[in-house]
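pls design
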């Protein structure tokens, strides 16, 4: 029997928007519906990607300029797609991914100011026309996100240390991406209770992708 191809669902948004919590809840919900589901993240998802993640997130935030950062994110992504995501989709598994190409557009394209054209060119070179089946953007005001991060009491990564204006541009970038591609993107208010956010996402998965 020919296995139906899996679907790629990406979760995007600023820091502290609750992506990992939602990925855990959605993985459980999909598995409960009998869907074979795997969770992964960027930067990361392969040993090579995790090594690039350490380069990008630990150490001096200024050691790579914006273009180098974007290239590293896309190199990690190309390997992630090639080694992990595409084989899973081919085997019929649904993949939930914590951040993907929209993060590079929002953080490096809008946040760091590299612009859409440069990021789109890097996208084409590294992963062609590949896009997720559904992208969920968890939208939260950066001030609210900062107070959530304070409560977590974890060390901040190099992006989390950037100023409020940077995070405002990142948020506006994600919302602009969603406006440009409404068929692929869903914006969810991440200030709602966790269960309400999960329910809104799951409803969109059922409506747009159909849960088998
Ligand atoms: P992570 O600890 O996963 O943060 P979060 O829990 O907020 O997702 O760190 C990933 C960081 O990398 C995050 O600050 C966003 C940044 N990033 C980019 O700047 N560009 C990218 O392409 C990706 C994938 C992440």
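designed seq:
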């Amino acid at each position: 029997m020919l296995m139906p191809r899996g679907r790629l669902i990406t979760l995007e948004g600023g820091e502290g928007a609750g992506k990992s919590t939602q990925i855990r809840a959605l993985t459980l919900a999909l598995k409960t519906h009998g869907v074979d589901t795997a969770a992964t993240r960027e930067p990361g998802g392969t040993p090579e990607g995790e090594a690039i993640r350490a380069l990008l997130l630990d150490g001096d935030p200024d050691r790579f300029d914006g273009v180098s950062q974007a290239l590293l994110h896309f190199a990690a992504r190309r390997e992630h797609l090639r080694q992990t995501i595409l084989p899973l989709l081919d085997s019929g598994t649904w993949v939930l991914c914590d951040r993907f190409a929209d993060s590079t557009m929002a953080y490096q394209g809008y946040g760091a100011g590299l612009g859409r054209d440069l990021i789109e060119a890097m996208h084409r070179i590294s992963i062609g026309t590949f896009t997720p089946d559904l992208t969920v953007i968890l939208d939260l005001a950066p001030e609210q996100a900062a107070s959530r991060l304070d409560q977590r009491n974890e060390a901040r990564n190099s992006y989390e240390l950037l100023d409020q204006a940077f995070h405002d541009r990142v948020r506006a970038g994600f919302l602009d991406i969603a406006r440009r591609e409404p068929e692929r993107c869903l914006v969810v208010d991440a200030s709602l209770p966790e269960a309400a956010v999960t329910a809104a996402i799951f409803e969109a998965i059922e409506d747009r992708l159909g849960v088998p």
